[in-house]
Amino acid sequence: MALARQARWLLVKAGDRILKFGPDQPISDEEIRSYLVHPSDGFLNVPVLILGDLLVRGYTDALYEEALGGR
User: What does the pLDDT look like over 3-42, one tens digit per residue?
Assistant: First the structure.
């Protein structure tokens, strides 16, 4: 959670959608936990990419294109 809280931006693959959180879209610790931690075993959902102040959870080409080129 400490690592996630350092990020200003969070992109999350959720089903077929990409959820975007940032300074103007606040997210609670509980919401972050629900996106980053697997509920059955408590381990981190993967893949997770951290680029400076951006944290990305999940993978699709579109998600990584946004993360790597859309900022």
Answer: 888 899 999 998 889 999 999 998 899 999 999 998 889 8
Tell which residue, 9, 27, 21, has the closest CA to residue 68.
9
What residues make up the domain containing 23?
2-69
DSSP 9-69: EEEEEETTEEEEEBTTB---HHHHHHHHB-TTT-PBPS-EEEETTEEEES--HHHHHHHHH
CA 1/CA 67 separation, integer angstroms: 20
Query: Based on the structure, what is the number of domains in the chain?
Result: 1
- For residue 64, give the nearest of 48, 44, 41 by alpha carbon: 48
